Amino acid sequence: MTNSRDKGNRFERHIANTLKEAFGVNLRRTPLSGGWAEDHPDTAGDIVNTDPEADWPYSIECKNSESWRLESLFTDNHKWFDDWWKQTLDECPDGKIPVLIFTRNYCPTFVATNNKVAMWVGGIDRIYIEEHDVVIYEFDTWIEMELTLRKDGDDV
Fold first, then answer.
1. Phi, psi of 102 (to 5 degrees)
2. Nearest-angstrom CA–CA distance, 109 and 102
3. If residue 98 lies in a helix (H) or strand (E), which one and from where to where?
4. Are 37 and 43 in contact (CB under 8 A)?
5. Cβ count near 58 (within 10 Å)
6. Is pLDDT above 60 for 35?
7. CATH 1.25.40 at 4-151, yes or no
8. Which helix (H) or strand (E) holds 15?
């Protein structure tokens, strides 16, 4: 049986490496996950930027859990998302964009954010959750969109 902590750690390392490769920023899993950030107020979330010169506007929370279903977002049964999004917002420092990255076995990885610039970019599949003013994208789509916004000079 897979240890859930190991599963979460592997997911965080995978996300950090994927984002590092995509954005060219030195990112890594926060030591001891998000708990380390309590003693390091310049960091927050599960992924930390280790390059003080790099522009990294995001505070990232990662979840790899079997306890959710995307279709539940269309019902009143989405406490899992409410709880995860609240944690993402609570741990996000001022001036950073809160980003929740989540997945489960045999499912794509998704990103939830309230980034106002990215929220209404046209031609991109997304789910809007009015209750939280949040948009959910597939992970790869979010990366492509953010890279395009950066290249075009839009503030992310």
1. -140, 155
2. 6
3. strand 97-103
4. yes
5. 23
6. no
7. no
8. helix 4-23
